User: What shape does this take?
Amino acid sequence: MYGLVNRALEELIRNQHGDTAWEAIKARAGVKVEVFTRMDGYPDSVTYSLVDAAVEVLGIPGDELLKAFGRQWTLYTGREGYGPLLASAGSSLKDMLMGLDDLHLRVGLMYPDLKPPSFRCETLDEKTIELHYHSTRAGLGPMVIGLVEGLAQHFAQPVSIRQHLHAGAGSDHDSFIIVMGETA
Ligand code: 1MF
Assistant: This one.
C-alpha cells in the first residue's frame, strides 16, 4: 500500500499512545523503515505487521484499532491535501458512499499502483442502505466501519452501522447495514 496509509497509522498511534509506543510497535513488527514516504509503495505485509504488533503492545483488540484507523483516515487525508478530492466526491454521506468507486478511479489515474477496493450501495429502504465492499485485502472490514463513521461525523449525519456479510463465511465479500439518522 502507498506510504500514506502507514503514515496515517503512525500518526494515529503517536497521537493516541505516544512516541515510545510507536517505536516499540515498529521494533516488534521488525519494520526498519525510518520515515514512510507518502507516494512510495510498501508491501501490504508492512501494514499488517504494524497492526498486529500494535494489538500486542497496546493490548487493544485488532477490530478496535482498525475502526479507529478508519475514523482517522478521512481526517488525515483531508489535512494532508486530499480535502478537495474528498469534497468533490459528494456533499452528503450517501452521495459520498455512492461515489467511492469514482473517487478511487480518480486517485488510481494519478497513482497507478493503487489497488482500490470497490463499494456498491444497495438501497433497502428510505433510510437504510447495504454497503457492499470488495477488496483484494483480507480482514479490513472493521476499518470500513470506522471510515463510514468518520464520514458520518464529517457530514454531521448520525448513523448506525453493523457488519452483515463476512467474506469467507459463505460470502465472497463483506457488507454493512447502514441506518441513517440513528446512532449506535
Ligand atoms: O492500494 C493502496 O495503496 C490503497 C491505499 C489507500 C488503496 C486504498 C486506500 C484507501 N482506503 C484505505 C483502505 C483500503 C482497504 C482495501 O484495500 O480494501 C480507504 C478507502 C475509503 C473508504 C471510504 C471512504 C474514503 C476512502 O478513502 C478516500 C481516499 C482514498 C484514497 C486516497 C485518499 C483518500 C489516496 C490518495 C493518495 C494515495 C493513496 C490513496 O497515494 C499517494 C499518496 C501521496 C502521493 C502519491 C500517492
Notes: The chain has a mean pLDDT of 96. Helices lie at 3-17, 19-29, 44-58, 62-87, 93-98, 100-110, 141-154. Residues 18 and 54 are 12 Å apart (CA to CA).
